[in-house]
Amino acid sequence: MLSLLSRTRRHMLAAPLALSIGLSAAGAFAAAPASPSALRIGFQKSASLLTLQKAQGTLEKRLQPLGVAVQWVEFPAGPQLLEGLNVGAIDVGFVGEAPPIFAQAAGANFVYIGNDPAAPEAEALVVQKDSPIKSVAELKGKKVALNKGSNVHYLLVKALEKAGLKYTDIQPVFLPPADARAAFERGAVDAWVIWDPFLAAVEKQSNARILADGKGLVSDYNFYLAERGYAQKYPKVIAALFEDTQAQGRWLKTHLDEAALLIAPLQGLDVEVVKLSLHRYQFNVQPVTPAIAAEQQLIADSFYNLKLIPKPIRIVDALPGAASATRVATER
């Protein structure tokens, strides 16, 4: 039996989440089952908190009373994860700033259900320790590796802009993290723009030199996304996911050394690499605010102007409740 305090805390958490996914706007899903049979989570091993949750089974325990199983589906990076969300292979996922923009431009039907706080130092543009390149401005005409459509895509755009260069002034080489590191270390590319824990790994293990991180350039939010229908039908499952993520995030930040010991073998990284990475994140998921949505819109507009996405998009259309609000306005 839950204590009154526990019930109250659960209600306080579920209430803003239910509001954010637009349940008050329509009763269209009143006849839907209270719980699905499963919650399919798309994750990347680089997502340290989800990796910890998967290892410890905390979410499974939390969802057991609802009769909901947890299925973990691994992806190499955010763009591939959102392809999985778009084709119905997963129900929720966790990605950086850029992948949702590319996915929305491609017609994916998802909603933003939360975000982690800004972590601008958790992504950076790096060169080899003995590289003659000393500044971002010296990247003109050079090959820069990155995962196309990932959060670092925007960091690269802003870093070049600050240095007085255009995106077309460099040669982007689109590679997933593992292939990019191999190309970087053998000198096949001149620079690499990458996120943690891959960033921490190349710093610690290869002594890579940072030309620029996100500080003063980008916020580097990470977002929790859900298939729109799933979020609307099953608010209790979404609330349980948030409650577990918040609880494990608090535990991680107060037991960082212990968490690093648990996460390191799962990510295939040294403990010191994982520690460095964990220090650069806050692990405190919150609902998406209008200010954060506005920052996403700036990224989307930038990508459209650079012809990185084929059409302009409105981030508000992918916010919780957008479809319901549109339907109610139309019916009037």
TrEMBL record:
<feature type="signal peptide">
    <location>
        <begin position="1"/>
        <end position="30"/>
    </location>
</feature>
<protein>
    <submittedName>
        <fullName>Sulfonate ABC transporter substrate-binding protein</fullName>
    </submittedName>
</protein>
<keyword id="KW-0813">Transport</keyword>
<feature type="domain" description="Solute-binding protein family 3/N-terminal">
    <location>
        <begin position="38"/>
        <end position="255"/>
    </location>
</feature>
<dbReference type="InterPro" id="IPR015168">
    <property type="entry name" value="SsuA/THI5"/>
</dbReference>
<dbReference type="InterPro" id="IPR006311">
    <property type="entry name" value="TAT_signal"/>
</dbReference>
<keyword id="KW-0732">Signal</keyword>
<dbReference type="InterPro" id="IPR010067">
    <property type="entry name" value="ABC_SsuA_sub-bd"/>
</dbReference>
<comment type="similarity">
    <text>Belongs to the bacterial solute-binding protein SsuA/TauA family.</text>
</comment>
<dbReference type="InterPro" id="IPR001638">
    <property type="entry name" value="Solute-binding_3/MltF_N"/>
</dbReference>
<dbReference type="Pfam" id="PF09084">
    <property type="entry name" value="NMT1"/>
</dbReference>
